[in-house]
Amino acid sequence: MHITHNEDDNLKRLLSFSIVAIKSSCGSFEVYGETDIDLQAKELVFERTRYVYNDALEYFNDNFLSEINSLGLDIALEEEETDATV
Predict the structure, then answer these.
(1) How many CA atoms lie within 13 A of 65 on its CB side?
(2) What is the pLDDT along the chain (86 residues), one digit of tens a residue?
(3) Which end of the chain is more exposed for a tag (fewer CB within 10 A), N or C?
(4) Cα separations (Å) of 42 from 31, 83, 84, 85?
(5) What's the start-to-end Cα distance of the chain, in Å?
(6) How far is CA 5 from the centre of its chain?
(7) pTM
(8) Which residues of 45-80 are buried (b: 16+ CB within 10 A; e: fewer)?
(9) Which residues are within 8 A (CB) of 31 and not within 5 positions of it... i.e. 6 or more apart?
């Protein structure tokens, strides 16, 4: 990405859209968390933002389908384990 100081607001906006999209597809995660799930999710957020920035969003889901599915399963399993212990 060619980032200049003037593009900060645009990138923040694109990142926030990507966070919402990944949470919608995969489930909840902590943006500032350090667990494996949080780090996987952040990676997908950055990748999706890169695709949006380069006007190639239509290719993101196909190119990252296995990562999206894997993250969604990991989040679901973690939620199930949390519910079982409560």
Answers:
(1) 4
(2) 555 666 788 999 999 999 999 999 999 999 999 999 999 999 999 999 999 999 999 999 999 999 999 999 999 999 998 888 76
(3) C
(4) 7, 24, 26, 27
(5) 44
(6) 24
(7) 0.88
(8) bebbbebbbeeebeebeeebeeebeebeebbeebee
(9) 19, 38, 41, 42, 45
CA 20 to chain centre: 8
Q: What is the token pair recorded at 32?
A: 């500032």
pLDDT at residue 8, as a whole number: 83
> Are 12 and 31 spatial neighbours (Cβ–Cβ below 8 Å)?
no
**Dihedral (CA of 24, 26, 28, 33) sign:** negative
- 30 in the Ramachandran plot: left (φ > 0), alpha (ψ -120 to 50) or beta? beta
Supply the pLDDT for residue 53: 95
